[in-house]
Amino acid sequence: MLSKKQLSDSIEYLIDQGFDAPEVGIVLGTGLGQLVDSIENQKVAHYNNIPSFPLATVEFHTGKLIYGDLGGKKVVVMQGRFHLYEGYDFIDITYPIRVMHGLGIKNLLVSNAAGAVNLDMKKGDMMVIDDHINLQGGSPLAFKNVSEFGERFTDMSAPYDANMNNILLELAQEHGTKMHKGVYASVVGPQLETRAEYRMLKLMGADAVGMSTVPEIIVANHLNLPVCAVSVLTDECDPDDLKAVDIAEIIAIAGEAEPKMVRLFQSLIERL
């Protein structure tokens, strides 16, 4: 169950810490933490100090909200997100989105590391998400008092903001960065997919697969919050030539691609 008091306690704590009217919220994915180095005049709140906030448990997800200046705007960045595979429920996973919205953000940017199901996409490339397939077996809106926070039957005909997606694609071209557009499938994990599962995902129309993002997108739409999301493709998922996955290599590839993503997000924020 989600309560308005929980949210107000979290929001009031952050306002007291100097998180004053951020315009843009950012969620950083696996191996994608460098963006915070570009934020000026930082204020930091660790998750374990924020009332009602979940705690990040994955070793490469630090747990803090960072507020400051980026691209000429006030931003709040979630460094360390929550996943179903850690044992969280959908309300926990999406709680920070509701908090950032309560602080005043007008746009949400999301990043993740994903596997390329579409073999025209290569590791190290990026993909702006145009649509998604929810394979996580549930919804962050499936709780009794959801109508206190927004429309229960939230429309998902266009979950990603076309204007921000188009700006990102233009910026990628200007920067000489390879940027695809495609469909992201979100699974539970934490195990990686089998050969048969990759074939299924391709038949479904997925271009990339990961273990996050979709719950946050659903809640952003519930809040009428414009959102865009970018996948950094860290491995190629060819069921006919499937290699064992090395998580350290995935983190390394995400880290190599990250400076390009940081530049794109910063340029996008300047244009919003």
Describe this protein's structure.
This is Purine nucleoside phosphorylase. The purine nucleoside phosphorylases catalyze the phosphorolytic breakdown of the N-glycosidic bond in the beta-(deoxy)ribonucleoside molecules, with the formation of the corresponding free purine bases and pentose-1-phosphate. Keywords: Glycosyltransferase, Transferase. With 272 residues, this protein is an alpha/beta fold. It has a single domain, classed as Rossmann fold (3-Layer(aba) Sandwich). Helices cover 31% and strands 24% of the residues. The protein contains 6 helices and 9 strands. Helix 4 links the parallel strand 7 and strand 8. Helix 2 crosses helix 5 and helix 3 crosses helix 6.
Map the helices and strands.
Layout: H1 4-16, E1 24-28, E2 40-46, E3 64-70, E4 73-79, H2 90-103, E5 107-116, E6 126-134, H3 162-175, E7 179-186, H4 195-204, E8 208-210, H5 214-222, E9 227-236, H6 247-271
Parallel strand pairs: 1-4, 1-5, 5-9, 6-7, 7-8
Antiparallel strand pairs: 2-3, 3-4, 5-8, 6-9
What's this, in brief?
By secondary structure, the chain is of the alpha/beta class. It has helices at residues 4-16, 90-103, 162-175, 195-204, 214-222, 247-271, and strands spanning 24-28, 40-46, 64-70, 73-79, 107-116, 126-134, 179-186, 208-210, 227-236.
